[in-house]
């Protein structure tokens, strides 16, 4: 019998086939029947991605520099990471926090930039100009321009190694009074310690105005940009130098002449390491900060006249709750005072916003906030709107950990978080489960992402359309976090478990309706009564109760896990087993299922032998907790190691499962096994070799039996890109085939860990938590195979096909395999579970090869 694996194309797919194999009942070879050869496609076929996670137009992470207020009244900024390629973004939002949009996702490919360390400037022509620290054809950064609606993106300059060009700009540009753009680079120049450059707004005229030398009284590596003084000169800072490595303040004419060091930081008391740019006050004085130095070596605020005279330290940060280590540029407020941000020294990741008069008096901490709420790492300064409101960014922290955008009043009141940055754009990421429910929709969970970056529940149509988030976890301090299991009850309600969250952060059991209403945490695992912790599986049994396992906890002092039961209304929680480990028991349970006999069967990751050889178990137990028996003890041998994947019961009544790799055996990459429910007949059906493209490795998930009676599963590694595979295997261990190599490209996922699930019409669904379009994982679908059971040849080939009822198939043929030239013969659907397909052209060929694929 010859089987042809048909994988359905959905949203993104390829008609390219990396390899094609024929298969007989004995071995993989083409079969000649009369004049025809049945040649099924058992390698990478039309893999269909239902969902590649992430909202590209909302994805942005880690804002490093301060915002600007556009002439249209909107706020504009950049993020170092996020976007469709995680190479940074340009974004926009309204001052009320609405309308957030990514205008540009940097890619770093070709001439495009990557990772903007600097903010933007709006030119008199209304366009935005900025720099990226990396990217461009030389990987050394770019200067770009873009319209405020996101159109018209242009790379004006790609920094290179030719001559004494600058490299890796970390600072924002300025548009000077002559209409040209000016900026600095951190590296490059004649001494490779940075430059000052000028550039026309069309990018046609570029020149290096000054190359820092790094010598005494010059220094180099400017982190900050420039400011134009009232005298038309450019002023800036260097952060590192030869003289004590404490930096300088310098001046330079716009034609590159007249370079002068106005201030050389030579002692700690006067400040050292000016990291941010200078600010020209309304009084004509230059103001700035140093990231260290001052009387407490925690940074300082200084003032300096444009002629280099009158340097003074206005304030020395104390390293206490008055702040420390200011990195952002100062702002002169509407009231004439200076505003800025700094770290709150204890704990160091908190932020303070401060105000100080230009004469150094009146220093006040306006507000401070924790990283978990408002963000951490204040890398940027503030911007103020006409109504006096202050806006700022935090590089990290916030609910998602990737930074925030906040507002507050000049007196420190009204602190509000307007934007929580996230590389997923608020979408889920790292999918952990997906299945087709009785209403025909796909439901699933992600273990990360969402508005709080602790996971989501989602819903979509079977073709991938209509995607919507039903639940963002982590909305309260005791809410569920990181969902790992989700199932549909016979009453059509969804139930699931989370790894963490709840009152003790040990995980939860929750329920929610399929329309997103009725979300309720039914049970919070805790330390009371030796409760379980970290649930790993959940099922609804034939008695209407929920049963599950926890990886840790229980009455055993070693906290080796439990089996529990719970009513669907959240009452009646009880432990029916606390694992004890050792030779007579398992430890760290991984899965549980109910057999056709009403008994529970499951696996433990460890236990079953002495500590030196224990490698997990297969067990059975009655639902009342009695009759516990170890059916199999894995002991570091060829039978397998750590059966983490779920068990399934085949149509023959036997149990099937998988084991993962063995850390004590570098050449052992996991197995598929079979065992009877009484513990007899243990058989290793497949031992994975991990030989890259030739085989998979480490099947974290279990297997399932599809409509054709074969077993289907996934490996977390191996395959052509070492990102895992989808495979099939007969229940007798014969006819192993890799159906899909995960590639991580073109929306394809990687490193699958959860089990496949069955849907209607023979569809199989799975998740891959890595790769995809934005590197955040995918949900995919393919169909169980159409099987070619025979062929007749009376001048015309007549193919007999068998598969899932009403499954659509497409037959292709070729007269040669060197190279193949597949031609479509037509499409149809199986009437019931069988069909016949004629090939009227077969008589004209001495040999004919066939395969089925999706139409």
Which secondary-structure class do the elements indicate? mainly beta
Profile the largest sheet.
5 strands, mixed
Q: Could you list the spans in which at least 5 consecutive residues all have pLDDT below 50?
A: 1-46
Radius of gyration: 32 Å
| Tally of separate helices | 0
Q: What does this protein structure show overall?
A:
The chain has 855 residues and is mainly β. 0% of the residues lie in helices and 41% in strands. Strands 2-3-73-70-71 form a 5-stranded mixed β-sheet, with no helix packed on it. Strands 1-68-69-72 form a 4-stranded antiparallel β-sheet, with no helix packed on it. A hairpin with a 5-residue loop joins strand 45 and strand 46. The two termini are 23 Å apart.
Descriptive tags:
single chain
In short:
The protein is an all-beta fold. Helix content is 0%, strand content 41%.
Note the topology.
Elements: E1 2-4, E2 31-33, E3 36-38, E4 48-52, E5 68-69, E6 75-79, E7 89-93, E8 101-105, E9 113-114, E10 121-122, E11 128-132, E12 134-135, E13 142-146, E14 154-158, E15 166-167, E16 174-175, E17 181-185, E18 187-188, E19 195-199, E20 206-211, E21 227-228, E22 234-238, E23 248-252, E24 260-264, E25 279-280, E26 286-290, E27 300-304, E28 312-316, E29 331-332, E30 338-344, E31 350-356, E32 364-369, E33 383-384, E34 390-394, E35 404-408, E36 416-420, E37 428-436, E38 442-449, E39 456-460, E40 468-472, E41 480-488, E42 494-501, E43 508-512, E44 520-524, E45 532-540, E46 546-553, E47 562-566, E48 574-578, E49 586-594, E50 600-607, E51 617-621, E52 629-633, E53 648-649, E54 655-659, E55 671-675, E56 683-687, E57 696-697, E58 703-705, E59 711-715, E60 717-718, E61 725-729, E62 737-741, E63 749-750, E64 757-758, E65 763-768, E66 770-771, E67 778-783, E68 786-793, E69 797-802, E70 808-814, E71 823-829, E72 834-839, E73 848-853
Parallel strand pairs: 3-73
Antiparallel strand pairs: 1-68, 2-3, 4-67, 5-6, 6-7, 7-8, 9-12, 10-11, 11-13, 13-14, 15-18, 16-17, 17-19, 19-20, 21-22, 22-23, 23-24, 25-26, 26-27, 27-28, 29-30, 30-31, 31-32, 33-34, 34-35, 35-36, 37-38, 38-39, 39-40, 41-42, 42-43, 43-44, 45-46, 46-47, 47-48, 49-50, 50-51, 51-52, 53-54, 54-55, ...
């Amino acid at each position: 019998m010859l089987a042809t694996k048909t994988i359905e194309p959905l949203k993104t797919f390829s008609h390219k086939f990396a390899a094609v194999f024929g298969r007989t009942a004995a071995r993989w070879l083409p079969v000649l029947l009369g004049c025809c050869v049945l040649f099924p496609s058992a390698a990478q076929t039309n893999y269909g991605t239902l969902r590649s996670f992430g909202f590209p137009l909302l994805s942005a992470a880690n804002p490093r520099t301060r915002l600007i207020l556009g002439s249209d009244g909107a706020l504009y900024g950049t993020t170092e990471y996020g976007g469709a390629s995680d190479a940074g973004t340009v974004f926009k939002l309204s001052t009320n926090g609405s309308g957030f949009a990514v205008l540009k996702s940097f890619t770093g490919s070709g001439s495009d930039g990557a990772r903007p360390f600097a903010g933007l400037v709006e030119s008199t022509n209304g366009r935005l100009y900025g720099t990226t620290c990396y990217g461009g054809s030389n990987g050394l950064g770019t200067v770009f321009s873009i319209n405020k609606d996101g159109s018209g993106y242009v790379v004006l300059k790609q920094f290179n190694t030719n001559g004494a060009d600058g490299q890796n700009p970390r600072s924002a540009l300025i548009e000077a009074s002559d209409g040209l753009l000016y900026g600095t680079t951190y590296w490059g120049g004649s001494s490779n310690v940075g430059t000052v450059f000028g550039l026309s707004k069309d990018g046609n005229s570029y020149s290096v105005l000054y190359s820092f030398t790094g010598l005494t009284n010059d220094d180099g590596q400017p982190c900050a940009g420039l400011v134009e003084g009232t005298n038309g000169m450019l002023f800036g800072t260097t952060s590192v130098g030869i003289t004590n490595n404490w930096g300088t303040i310098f001046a330079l004419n716009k034609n590159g002449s007249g370079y002068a060091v106005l201030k050389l930081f030579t002692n700690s008391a006067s400040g050292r390491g000016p990291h941010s740019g200078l600010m020209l006050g309304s009084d004509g004085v230059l103001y700035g900060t140093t990231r260290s130095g001052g009387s407490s070596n925690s940074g300082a605020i200084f003032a300096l006249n444009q002629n280099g005279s009158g340097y003074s330290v206005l304030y020395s940060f104390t390293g206490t709750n008055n702040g420390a280590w200011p990195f952002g540029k100062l702002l002169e407020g509407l009231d004439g005072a200076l505003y800025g941000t700094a770290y709150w020294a204890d704990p160091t990741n908190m932020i303070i916003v401060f105000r100080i008069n230009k004469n150094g008096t009146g220093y006040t901490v306006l507000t401070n906030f924790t990283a978990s709420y408002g963000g951490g790492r204040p890398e940027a300064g503030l911007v103020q709107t006409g109504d006096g409101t202050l806006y700022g960014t935090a590089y990290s922290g916030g609910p998602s950990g990737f930074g925030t955008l906040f507002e507050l009043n000049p007196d420190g009141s009204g602190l509000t978080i307007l934007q929580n940055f996230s590389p997923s754009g608020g979408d889920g990421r790292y999918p952990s489960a997906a299945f087709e429910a009785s209403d025909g929709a796909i439901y699933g969970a992600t273990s990360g992402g969402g508005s709080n970056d602790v996971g989501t529940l989602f819903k979509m149509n079977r073709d991938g359309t209509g995607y919507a988030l039903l639940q963002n976890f982590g909305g309260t301090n005791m809410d569920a976090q990181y969902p790992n299991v989700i199932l549909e009850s016979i009453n059509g309600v969804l139930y699931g478990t989370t790894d963490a969250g709840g009152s003790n952060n040990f995980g939860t059991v929750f329920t929610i309706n399929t329309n997103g209403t009725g979300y309720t945490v039914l049970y919070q695992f805790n330390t009371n009564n030796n409760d379980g912790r970290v649930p790993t599986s959940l099922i609804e049994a034939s008695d209407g109760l929920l049963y599950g396992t926890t990886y840790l906890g229980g009455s055993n002092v070693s906290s080796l896990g439990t089996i529990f039961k719970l009513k669907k209304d959240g009452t009646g929680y009880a432990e029916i087993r606390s694992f004890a480990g050792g030779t007579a028991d398992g430890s760290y349970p991984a899965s549980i299922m109910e057999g056709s006999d009403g008994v529970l069967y499951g696996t433990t990751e460890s236990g079953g032998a002495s500590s030196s050889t224990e490698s997990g178990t297969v067990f059975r137990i009655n639902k009342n907790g009695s009759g516990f028996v170890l059916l199999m003890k894995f002991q570091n041998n060829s039978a397998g190691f750590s059966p983490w994947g779920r068990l399934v019961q085949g149509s023959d009544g036997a149990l099937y499962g998988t084991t993962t790799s063995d850390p004590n055996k570098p050449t052992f990459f996991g197995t598929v096994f079979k065992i009877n429910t009484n513990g007899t007949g243990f058989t290793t059906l497949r031992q994975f070799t991990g030989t890259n493209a030739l085989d998979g490795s480490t099947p974290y998930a279990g297997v399932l039996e599809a409509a054709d009676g074969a077993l289907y599963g996934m490996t977390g590694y191996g395959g052509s890109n070492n990102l895992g595979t989808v495979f099939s295997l007969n229940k007798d261990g014969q006819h192993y085939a890799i159906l899909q190599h995960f590639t991580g490209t073109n929306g394809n996922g990687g490193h699958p860990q959860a089990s496949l699930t069955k849907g209607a019409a023979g569809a199989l669904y799975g998740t891959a938590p890595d790769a995809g379009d934005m590197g955040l994982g995918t949900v995919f679908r393919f169909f169980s195979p159409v099987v070619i059971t025979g062929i007749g040849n009376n001048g015309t080939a007549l193919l007999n096909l068998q598969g899932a009822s009403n499954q659509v198939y497409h037959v292709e043929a070729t007269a040669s395999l060197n190279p193949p030239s597949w031609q479509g013969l037509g499409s149809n659907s199986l009437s019931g579970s069988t069909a016949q397909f004629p090939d009227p052209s077969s008589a004209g060929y001495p040999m004919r090869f066939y395969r089925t694929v999706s139409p």
